[in-house]
Design a protein that fits this description.
Layout (H helix, E strand, L loop, with lengths): L16 H17 L10 H12 L11 H24 L4 H27 L6 H7 L5 H10 L6 H24 L6 H24 L3 H10 L6 H20 L3 H15 L6 H25 L3 H5 L1 H19 L6 H16 L4 H12 L5 H25 L21
Length: 414
C-alpha cells in the first residue's frame, strides 16, 4: 500500500476539499449515530463504513477518494494497527490466558488455512492464505467496551476473551506481513522477521529503562502545553518503525503494530494516561474514522448485494464461527458450557482487521472486490449480532463468577 503523497516535483492536482468535507462529516455523523439510541449502541466502525457507502459512488456519489484523502486514510490504517499494539500492552492479560489464546489461535489458523484452500479450489477468487488469516482474526478493540458494559471484563470469561482477542490481533498481523512480502525466500523472511523483532525488543527495553531525569522532566512539563513531547515522540517512533518495516520488505502495518507495542510499554504507568488520551484524539478523533469512511466509499455494494455476494457473506459468517470457535473447548473445563459458547461467539467477532486485510490484499491482487465485499459484510454482521447473542447467553451475576483479572481502563471502541 502506497503511503506516500504526491511528490513535490510532479504536477500535483489540488485536493478535493468538497469530498474531504463530506468524509469528515460522515466520520462525525458516525460517532453521533452510533450512540443516538440510549439502549442500542452500534459499533462506530460499522456506522462509518455504512456512511462511506452512502456518500460514495455506489449511492449518492457526492464524494470521491483522491490522493490526499487516500494518504489520510492510509495514515489512519497505520494508527489502527498502532493502537492494536498499544491495546495488547494495556489490557494486562494474564500470561496463562495469552498462552492458551495463542494455542487456540494456532488451531484457528490451521482450520482457517484448510478452509481457505478448499474455498480457493472451489473457485472463490481470493488467495487461500488471505482467507485463512482473515477468518482467524478477532476484533479485540470492539469487544472490550461491550464486555465492560456487560460487567464481564473482571470474570473468567472476560480473561478468556482477552487472551483469545490478543492472539487474534497479534498473530494475524505477523503472518499477513510475512505472506504479503513476497520479496525474499521463506528462510530469509523468517530471519528478517527475527531481526526486526530484535530491533523492536531493543527499542522496547530502551523505552522502559532508559529514562534520564532531564528527559522525564521535559515529558512531564510538556504534557499539558503546546510542546506535547511524548505525543510527538510516539508519532516519530511510529513513522520510524513503519519506514523500517517497509524498507526491510515487510508490510508497513507490522511496523505500526510494533510501534504500538513499544509506546504501550513506555506509557505503562498512570502518569502517562494524558499522553494516551491525546494519541487517541489524533487516531480515533480524526484519522482512523477517515480510513473506515473511505473503506465504505470503496465498498463494492453491487457485488455484495448480488445473490452470489450474499451467499458468500453468509458462508463467511458461518466460517468465522467455525474457525474462531474451534479452540473454545480449550476453556471448557474452566468456563463451563454456557460461557464457552459465549467465548466462541465473541472470538468470532472480527471487523476492523478484516477490513484492513481485505484493503491490503486488494491492492496486491490477493482478493477481488466482490469477495472482499462479502468478507467485510460478514465482519459487519459479526460485530452487530454475535456480541449481542453472547451477552444474552451469559447470565451476568458477580456472586456466581470468580474474578480472574482486574478491570482494564476504558479503551477505544474500534
Amino acid at each position: 500500500m502506497d503511503v506516500v503523497p504526491p511528490a513535490l516535483g510532479q504536477a500535483a492536482t489540488l485536493p478535493d476539499l468538497d469530498s474531504l468535507l463530506f468524509v469528515l462529516g460522515a466520520s462525525t455523523l458516525g460517532a453521533i449515530l452510533s450512540r443516538i439510541h440510549g439502549r442500542l449502541v452500534l459499533p462506530t466502525v460499522v456506522v462509518e463504513i455504512a456512511l462511506g457507502i452512502v456518500i460514495g459512488p455506489e449511492l449518492l456519489d457526492i464524494a470521491q477518494v483522491d490522493s490526499y484523502i487516500e494518504f489520510l486514510a492510509n495514515f489512519g490504517l497505520a494508527l489502527l494497527f498502532f493502537f492494536a499494539g498499544l491495546e495488547v500492552v494495556e489490557q494486562r492479560v494474564p500470561r496463562r490466558s495469552v498462552v492458551r489464546g495463542s494455542a487456540g489461535w494456532g488451531i484457528s489458523i490451521a482450520v482457517g488455512l484448510a478452509v481457505g484452500a478448499l474455498l480457493s479450489a472451489a473457485g472463490v477468487d481470493a488467495e487461500w492464505w488471505l482467507l485463512g488469516v482473515a477468518l482467524s482474526t478477532t476484533a479485540l478493540g470492539t469487544l472490550v467496551p461491550i464486555l465492560a458494559d456487560a460487567g464481564l471484563l473482571p470474570t473468567r470469561l472476560g480473561s478468556a476473551v482477552l487472551g483469545a482477542g490478543v492472539a487474534g490481533e497479534f498473530w494475524p498481523i505477523v503472518v499477513i506481513s510475512v505472506f504479503l512480502t513476497g520479496v525474499y525466500g521463506a528462510l530469509e523472511e523468517v530471519l528478517l522477521l527475527l531481526a526486526f523483532g530484535g530491533i523492536v525488543a531493543l527499542a522496547a527495553t530502551a523505552a522502559m529503562r532508559a529514562r534520564p531525569p532531564r528527559l522525564l522532566r521535559i515529558l512531564r512539563e510538556t504534557v499539558h502545553t503546546t510542546g506535547q513531547t511524548a505525543v510527538r515522540a510516539s508519532i516519530f517512533l511510529l513513522g520510524g518503525l513503519v519506514l523500517l518495516a517497509h524498507d526491510v520488505g515487510f508490510d508497513f502495518v507490522l511496523g505500526a503494530f510494533a510501534a504500538g507495542l513499544v509506546v504501550g510499554l513506555a506509557l505503562d504507568s498512570p502518569e502517562a494516561a494524558p499522553v494516551r488520551m491525546r494519541l487517541e484524539g489524533i487516531g480515533f478523533g480524526l484519522l482512523i474514522p477517515i480510513y473506515f469512511v473511505v473503506a465504505g466509499m470503496e465498498f463494492d455494494l453491487d457485488g455484495f448485494l448480488s445473490p452470489t455476494g450474499l451467499a458468500l457473506a453468509a458462508l463467511f459468517l458461518g466460517l468465522l464461527l467455525v474457525v474462531r470457535g474451534a479452540p473454545s473447548p480449550l476453556w471448557l473445563r474452566e468456563l463451563g458450557q454456557r460461557d464457552t459458547l459465549a467465548l466462541a461467539l465473541l472470538s468470532a467477532t472480527g471487523l476492523p482487521l478484516i477490513v484492513a486485510l481485505v484493503d491490503i490484499g486488494t491492492d496486491r491482487g490477493a482478493i477481488t472486490d466482490e469477495v472482499g465485499a462479502s468478507l467485510i459484510g460478514a465482519g459487519m454482521v459479526s460485530v452487530l449480532v454475535l456480541p449481542l447473542l453472547a451477552t444474552r447467553i451469559v447470565r451476568v451475576d458477580g456472586s456466581e463468577r470468580q474474578i480472574a483479572a482486574a478491570p482494564p481502563e476504558e479503551t477505544a471502541e474500534y
